[in-house]
């Protein structure tokens, strides 16, 4: 059974890795067009398929939905920064619902402190970076949602060093995007870090949540 399960899940994860890693090397193609937009969304899109096929129940729908909205956001960002950001915000809201439904039974003071820091510092840092750009308030409000997602992920029952770490990587990736738009960091620094942090974070979140939900379904689970 474990070998058959691995064979069933490997194609989606392999396709995601191939799409996500390869996109990093073609992202700056000046003649990309629509095919490059679809390539960009394929990495997380395959993760959404992985979640959809490997989970059951409402929590499975939530993680698949959050990843689907992320993939749509990846594509739409190439057309409209605001619409793409709105799709990501919706995805974060869905993820927050998932994490709050799966809160850790006992949370240590250090976990609460880390969660609170993510919740408060993410929008604060984003606002300081984005100000006085025209949409700095929108960036700050969006970052409050991202910080809420990361805080909820860190204090959920899902593995912190996969799902929690993935959410923190997502936060850092978004802050680097704002730093790039505000010209607060050189292009070479953001070019080499934004996509790996983002895609790596989504990959950790997807695999961590899916494997935990699947463990819940094991008949021998005590």
From TrEMBL:
Q: Which GO terms describe its cellular component?
A: membrane
Subcellular location(s) per record: Membrane
Tell me where on the tree of life, at the top rank, the source sits.
Bacteria
Keyword annotations from UniProtKB, A to Z: Membrane, Transmembrane, Transmembrane helix
Pfam families hit by this protein: YhhN
> Where exactly are the transmembrane stretches of this chain?
12-27, 33-50, 57-73, 79-100, 112-130, 136-154, 161-180, 192-213
Kindly report the protein's main subcellular placement as a broad class: membrane
An MF annotation (GO) of this entry? hydrolase activity
Can you tell me which family this protein belongs to?
Belongs to the TMEM86 family.
Q: How does it sit in the membrane?
A: Multi-pass membrane protein
The entry's protein name is F0F1-type ATP synthase assembly protein I
């Amino acid at each position: 059974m474990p070998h058959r399960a691995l064979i069933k899940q490997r194609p989606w994860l392999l396709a995601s890795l191939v799409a996500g890693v390869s996109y990093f090397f073609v992202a700056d193609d000046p003649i990309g067009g629509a095919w490059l937009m679809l390539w960009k969304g394929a990495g997380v899109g395959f993760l959404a398929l992985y979640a959809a096929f490997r989970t059951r129940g409402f929590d499975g729908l939530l993680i698949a939905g959050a990843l689907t909205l992320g993939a749509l956001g990846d594509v739409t960002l190439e057309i409209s920064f605001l619409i793409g950001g709105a799709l990501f915000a919706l995805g974060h809201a869905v993820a927050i619902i998932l994490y709050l439904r799966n809160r850790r039974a006992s949370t240590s003071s250090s976990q609460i402190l880390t969660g609170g820091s993510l919740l408060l510092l993410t929008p604060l840092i984003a606002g300081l970076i984005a100000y006085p750009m025209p949409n700095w308030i929108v960036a700050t409000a969006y970052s409050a949602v991202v910080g809420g997602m990361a805080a909820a992920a860190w204090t959920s029952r899902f593995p912190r060093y996969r799902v929690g770490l993935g959410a923190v990587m997502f936060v850092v990736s978004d802050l680097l995007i704002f730093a790039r738009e505000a010209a607060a960091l050189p292009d070479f620094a953001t070019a080499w870090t934004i996509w790996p942090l983002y895609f790596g974070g989504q990959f950790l979140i997807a695999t961590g949540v899916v494997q935990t939900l699947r463990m819940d379904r094991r008949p021998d689970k005590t």
